[in-house]
């Protein structure tokens, strides 16, 4: 039974009130409608809910009222170049035997034929996308590096649940505006600015400058801001406990729970207990970090 600390957060607001919020069994039953089944012989992709931890069939792992779910995605890797090359080889054989070059319609039929033949032998790749649900405070956080990857989970939830009108988190201040203020010297309470940053110009050339492991305190940064460059990414640490990179779209990336957090669970006796302790600690930190970040961004925008 393993638990992997989240590396990214795509944050969403759960509907309020949410009928499932007090019933983990109800959510489990609805997710079971789309439990993961591996790809069939002709399926290029399969996706569905899978137990987020080992040793149980439960699709919702509940620790102290905090829930963990996992979407499993399996794809057959059949490169388009392989299909194209085989179809062209067969087209060349037809041209040699029958004296004419196959047209577009026949080429499409050849590609479809090759795909049907090769698909069952295609290599299968499987991965999980995890999501944390805080039914008490109304948060859904997906461990995905982009909104596109997170959308896989959102779409699966919409298909599985009777109703799921989730909303993307919006704040009074845009992340760009807030990060500009912070870099100009108005550091938010509870947060420290780290040594990574990316600034982009608003001109057509979209000139950008990146700083890695570089102090952001000097006049150089302020000069870039004065010239019209805006922050696209900024590394921050919250209360010396969690570090992360905030993006211009409000995404949280490179999330890292520092040693003071992870060491709190080292006394657990077995793997299952350790996994639960780590998830509980992570959820506990996020339940404090998220409101603090929202406050630094001017509060949640009324929707």
From TrEMBL:
Keywords: Cytoplasm, DNA recombination. It comes from the Bacteria. InterPro entries: RdgC. One of its GO terms (biological process) is regulation of DNA recombination. The keyword Lipid metabolism does not apply. GO terms for cellular component: bacterial nucleoid; cytoplasm. It is found in: Cytoplasm, Nucleoid. NCBIfam families: PRK00321.1-4, PRK00321.1-5. May be involved in recombination. This is Recombination-associated protein RdgC. It comes from Denitromonas halophila. The gene is rdgC.
